[in-house]
Amino acid sequence: MRGVSKTLAGALAVFLLAVGLAACGGGSSDSTGSSSTEAGQTQAEGGSSRSGSMMHESKGGEAKESGPESSSRKGEAAEFKPKQHSDSGGGSQQYVQKGGDNSVQEFGKEAGQGELDAAAVALHNFLDARAQGNWAAACDYMAKSVVESFEKLAAQAKQLKDTSCAGILEKLTNPAAKAAMKQEAEKANVGSLRVEGDRSFVIYKGSKGAVLAMPMVNEGGKWKVASLAGTPLN
Question: Is residue 202, in this structure, part of any structural domain at all?
């Protein structure tokens, strides 16, 4: 891609986790186009949209963890109770900065309402699970290839007792960040989904008015987060 900006290049770099690292032994992604997610994920996970603002509610999925503590981690994921969120929508145009870097805002094309709802559900559930410290549930909403890459790299660290995605995510998270993660989960307001093939960016407002872009990967007709944090756009 010629002339890619630093913002988009940095945001796209997280896809190396889902593509590049996976090539070293991770799983493949069974991706379908935009049409499959539009009618599928929101309904399958319980999300819904109403009256111009999106009201999301969804159920946690089955844990994918492997490793020494997989059984207890599956139980942890089952305890996750997603919250309902209201998103303003409105498309990426509202985030365009005059004279600024708008490469993410102009990435691919704007998704339809159904697909936007589905991606928003995945993002909210990931943020909520992370804020609750339910690492197993958070891993359920992460791209499979990223999870597998985490586990393969952790398997090489002999000092780690729990090499599951949940165990790794817990180790990577600073306990001091708990308040900030809770605030971000509560304040997250999804406004846009920019899609190109099986990749996309959810653009949302976080705490203190920050505009963030979370990279997503389509796996089997469902959007999954492909990073541990959104990329700031302002």
Answer: yes
